[in-house]
Known about the structure:
The complex is a heterotetramer, with two copies of chain A and two copies of chain C. By secondary structure, chain A is an alpha/beta fold. Chain A contains ten helices and six strands. Chain A has a six-stranded parallel β-sheet with strand order 2-1-3-4-6-5, sandwiched between helices. The termini of chain A are far apart. Chain C is built from twelve helices and 14 strands.
Amino acid sequence: MTTMPAHDEYGSHEPVLPGPVDHSNAELPIELPVRLQMYRMQQEIRLFSKRAHDLFLQGLVNGTSHLSAGQEAVAAGFAAAMRPDDWTFATYRGHAHTLARGVGMGPIMAELLGRANGLLGGKGGSMHLTSVEHGMMGSYAIIGAHLCVANGAAWTSQVKGTGQVAVAFFGDGTTNIGAFHEALNFAKVWNLPTVFVCENNLYMEYTPIAQATAVPNPAADRAAAYGLESMIVDGNDADAVLVAARDALARARDGGGPSLIEAQTYRHGGHSRADPGTYRPDEEVQAWLERDPIPMYHQRLLQLGVDESELARIVTETTEQVDLATQEAVAGTMPAPESVLQDVWADGSSTWRN
Amino acid sequence: MTTMPAHDEYGSHEPVLPGPVDHSNAELPIELPVRLQMYRMQQEIRLFSKRAHDLFLQGLVNGTSHLSAGQEAVAAGFAAAMRPDDWTFATYRGHAHTLARGVGMGPIMAELLGRANGLLGGKGGSMHLTSVEHGMMGSYAIIGAHLCVANGAAWTSQVKGTGQVAVAFFGDGTTNIGAFHEALNFAKVWNLPTVFVCENNLYMEYTPIAQATAVPNPAADRAAAYGLESMIVDGNDADAVLVAARDALARARDGGGPSLIEAQTYRHGGHSRADPGTYRPDEEVQAWLERDPIPMYHQRLLQLGVDESELARIVTETTEQVDLATQEAVAGTMPAPESVLQDVWADGSSTWRN
Amino acid sequence: MAELTYRSAVAAAIAQEMENDPDVVFLGEDVAGAGGVFKTTGGLLSQFGPVRVRDTPISEQAILGAAMGAAMTGLRPIAEIMFSDFLAVCWDIVANEIAKSRYMTAGQMSFPLVVRTANGGGSRFGAQHSQSVENWAMAVPGLKVVAPSTAADVIGLLAAAVRDPDPVVFFEHKSCYPMKFELPDTPGDLVGRLGEARVVREGGDVTIVALALMVHRALDAAEQLAAEGIDAEVIDVRSLVPLDTRTILASVAKTSRLFTVEENPRLCGWGAEIASIVAEEAFWDLDGPIGRITTPHVPLPAAGTLEDITIPSVERVVTTIREAVQA
Amino acid sequence: MAELTYRSAVAAAIAQEMENDPDVVFLGEDVAGAGGVFKTTGGLLSQFGPVRVRDTPISEQAILGAAMGAAMTGLRPIAEIMFSDFLAVCWDIVANEIAKSRYMTAGQMSFPLVVRTANGGGSRFGAQHSQSVENWAMAVPGLKVVAPSTAADVIGLLAAAVRDPDPVVFFEHKSCYPMKFELPDTPGDLVGRLGEARVVREGGDVTIVALALMVHRALDAAEQLAAEGIDAEVIDVRSLVPLDTRTILASVAKTSRLFTVEENPRLCGWGAEIASIVAEEAFWDLDGPIGRITTPHVPLPAAGTLEDITIPSVERVVTTIREAVQA
Lengths: 354, 354, 327, 327
Ligand SMILES: Cc1ncc(C[n+]2csc(CCOP(=O)(O)OP(=O)(O)O)c2C)c(N)n1
Ligand SMILES: Cc1ncc(C[n+]2csc(CCOP(=O)(O)OP(=O)(O)O)c2C)c(N)n1
Ligand SMILES: [Mg+2]
Ligand SMILES: [Mg+2]
């Protein structure tokens, strides 16, 4: 007689609590300007997200969106470590990474609003943010594929000897899809300069990752299956992320092949704009809100001797940026109807017959 | 600057040699009738394969075929351990498992020849041998899928509480496809009574598995990624296989969930009937031929006191069986043309319109 | 007469079938604990328990593989693939395994299973979450293909699909979920039949064949055309496989003109199939060219303003038919 | 004039393009060391080395993902998917990623890549290794789709596909591999153009449109029909996307009758698309029903005797057209 494992009722599962902040990370050898840059990035992502949420509540946002409030440190830590010509591959939850790579807020916001001045002219929307000139090589909305695509960019780097690295970000839930497995094995066998970053925020859409995964650490516990080192990093601490990222990027650039990093973090909101996130135990949400990466980092910078006013200035500047971007987006016209038939092909057309 | 791993030239890679026979397996607590049954099964598979090859050389075999000469001990050991109502899921290299589950040689041979009296009326061919009444739940010709399908049968067992176990056999090359990963994780998370058996014969079609896999043991080194124990068994020793199979089947039946077993073995011939297998180092082929599971098992039975004449009788009987099956197959008529339009649907038709 | 949304009809249908047959089981991502991302399957877990209603990892191949293996061994699974676009990640299981295994085994196995999936545009989700891919399934021999346009058909046809001994891919239209419909007051289970189109509006001048969301647009268009003196017959195909060609051919015999209204991209859709059948079998009935109104052959854009002009609108249906009839 | 098999033309084309452009790279299962399971790619590894010609694990998603990522960053990959049936295991990368990403990013990215794959029946491999799935690709906006019938077209169209800035799915027909063809004596590279059909036989009575292996059967059928006094024009479509509708419409304008000969299963094939285009745009040119000659809508059986009566034969083409014309 075979038996079934216990099934958790909706929201009734055991809370997964964050570990304590590792204050010794303040001593990591990170240049202060880089730290300030990461602080700014995190604020940019947070304040932009908040505005996007507000605009959604005002009925201005087109379609869905998936925010990253709570997960900013991962995007900031990696972007600060990457070379400008490195490549980012993100998911539908890609606003953070797009901003962190330096793409302007205005075009992103306009894209969310479905405007002609959007980053993609309104054709891609929130889930597909891309800016090739910034090395932001796309946001992919179907789970798994982009890990394989990142390998392709890494292959170009390898063939051409440019030293560029491809970094693919994805969620915990994504570790259970076939493409994850194929991408990791392929990267190792071809010794590709790909860095795979799992942002483990403990949930798929609404289902706790522990209910869907055979191992406690969905990425780290799979590393050995690809001949890789198991690496877990505090995804709510930009310093920890930066150091792990620098290591992995350097290894990839030096011909040392791929890495797989699991960053433990939490999303403050629901999965997407339609989701209040009520399936999560209150205690868990509370504990992670207290472990918010931004106030923690604020404290660290103060402790490192940065003046409160300098941090306040960053917030003010960022808020102004967000305001400007909002104006830019709201002022945008709707996309021209003819754009529907454009850009299927490289000649700009969608012509399939003569 | 990133670098590439070295690339082996065709057939020039390092040979992978078998370990020595573990003679202590003779002491495993296995009933003699079971041992004799496994000997017979192995001979059935070997002699049937030889005949299929001969008929191919005579131009009688329809399409392709993938033989298992050299890998008989895996099929025999598992079939001897399984309950009649357990389920087998095999690949295109499925003749061995079909025979081992007790399916008649005549219908199998007739299927290879594309005859009306074939197991599948000629509609499936060599790569899709199936006999539901024998628990032979199909041979699947596209890599990966059937691992997922086996889970479904296991789920039925779990829901209905029948204690049946689903066993999926697959090759080393199959461990690198996405479906492998999804199936293993799913089986563990759902605690399904599925036993996954990798027949590691060291090659995909023509490419050595080591060139395509991030870890030395393609299945065993992945077990931990699914919370499973790493298990390697000598796939050329039916006794070793039987014991591992009994363990895994008992665990699955008792609600202990899935297992993943890697059986190390070798195919004596090429990948399919079209392939001479010349990409393999001579030394490697030679060493594995010397490690042929059948003579080794023959020796073991003699050593256990079985009379040479009893073994000779099994070979004679089996040869007769193969002769009979050949006659049955060759005498078979060609399938009726109308069968082309039959059995798309459960009502026996292929009608898609009124 | 009860009123029901198309969305609620889904859980109602599944519940009806799970009550009717203990072998019916249901699996998918976020379908049990969370009640489905489209809120179509709420309440099923508490009603039928975790043995029969079960959440899965994000592993579409594993999901449909499990459905297939369960179906061949005695269960009648209903599997949800969250968005129909994701059929692409498990297409091998659908097109190569589920569809072909009965035939390849000369009828030894049956696959009484249903793959439910949210299809179609209108939600501004962009090109990877808005496709209409019913034609992918229609092109594969061995699959039955259904796409209801009303709540009653969601129940009736889903019930029929669950009871059918063959695999059915069941396309629910995302833009229909919030729509309200009246249900017939039938005692007992509501069970439809696969392979029957429905004439939703009778008319003598032109035949309009439509599916799912497009049925509602075709009906609106027919009202506008009626005001202009063009009397359209509107047919809801409902089931692409089996296909009720008889109803379509009979209508064309009466009206002598055929128009199809398809949401899928232009090339090789079900509209082309129906147009070709009519061009072969009812050629002499036709008084003019066959018109296909489709989404242009482009991926779907995300912006609402763009999506709205891409998918066939009531206005486009009206204009196309008016111009064709007046030509 | 040199003579070449369709099989050898594959490596010749790849070699030509790899010599022409250092960014051209080639990957797939067993393609490098082993020269391909159909022996189509022998010699490339030794000629171009392991950086540009590379074996992969059995990981079709990884293969096409790598091709896609490489294409967007400056290489021009050619990826082999061993059998076209296996496109189903990586259909997401093909249909959802490669096809749509240029459009979704408003043209920021280009995907100059080719997916080569062995398509079609005749080898008695059964339902999972014999399909003709060119219509799967044709139904997805954003993919160009090519299927050559001769060695010269293998070279010319593969070269054109490699040089094209858009993704091309290139269907080689397994049953054509052993066929020998004469090559034109052109100096320099042999490069064709996508989107041009070829009239392979001129005729005035009926138009037969065919693809790949079916072109040869259509030609044989045309000879037999000619002996019976029916003068058929035979068109080799060659490229399904872009589609040379002009050549087809011009032919139908001349002959007034259209027949398509397709190897793919009946529903929603390219034949239906062409039939529908003609039924809309050349309706008044037609003197009789449009006939589609296809494989019935069933998976392919393995036995040779069964496979041969399932795929359209010369005889079936002749009979169908004779009966239609005489009706
Ligand atoms: C193949 C596929 N299956 C399902 C989905 C629907 N889906 C979108 S996001 C999501 C959860 C992903 O979880 P995770 O990988 O942890 O990322 P997170 O959203 O937490 O960042 C799911 C199931 C999808 N987009 N693609
Ligand atoms: C998805 C898929 N890709 C490729 C193939 C072609 N193919 C058939 S057998 C084979 C090698 C399989 O190797 P392995 O899993 O080791 O099994 P073995 O043949 O050695 O028993 C390949 C690549 C296939 N059938 N399906
Ligand atoms: Mg997550
Ligand atoms: Mg192998």
